[in-house]
Specification:
The chain is of the alpha+beta class. The protein has 3 helices and 8 strands, in the order βααβββββββα. The N and C termini lie far apart (35 Å).
């Protein structure tokens, strides 16, 4: 099944690109519904690098959900579009029920110095897929609101406040 988002974010595309590659932003837009803890030596990197990043997930910071791998890549895209893809997988708990996971985020310029953000999740969990779709859809709506709220704070090289400690 598929979940889609298409938003205009009130920030420069370069700032949005840096933000979606930040584990700090990943955690911010997921909270408080889900909380992630890095299982990598040294914790989360400043920016996602290509490759596998193991994490532990909990719901509301209280209920363990399991472990998963975030598998980051940066596929080639048409001019002016930048894509980050997570083709990870669940390792334990309910996360292991998901047998297909492809989460792609695309950044491009929009009029007025803003950013066109497109987000697509394609997932499968066998016969459980239709039951999981409403949960993922609701979570993606939560993320959309958080992205729109935080986007104006993402700025490097200006005096605007940033939520990123980079």
């Amino acid at each position: 099944m598929r979940v889609l988002l298409k938003l205009v974010l009130d920030c420069d595309p370069d700032d949005a690109w840096r933000a979606i590659r930040s584990p700090h932003v990943f955690q911010e837009v997921s909270a408080p519904l889900t909380q992630f803890t890095s299982l990598e030596v040294g914790g989360f990197p400043q920016l996602w690098q290509p490759g596998e990043h193991p994490v532990r997930m909990s719901a509301l910071g209280l209920c363990p959900v399991g472990q998963q791998v975030i598998d980051v890549s940066y596929p080639d895209a048409p001019d002016g579009v930048r894509i980050m893809r997570d083709s990870g997988r669940g390792l334990s708990g309910p996360l292991a029920l998901v047998t297909q996971w492809e989460h792609s985020m695309a950044i491009s310029a929009a009029p007025g110095g803003t950013t066109l953000y497109r987000d697509q999740l394609i997932f499968s969990a066998g016969i459980l897929t239709p039951l999981l779709w409403p949960l993922y859809w609701a979570f993606w709506q939560w993320r959309a609101g958080a992205l729109q709220r935080l986007a104006p704070t993402w700025s490097w090289g200006t005096t605007r406040r940033t939520n990123l400690s980079l």
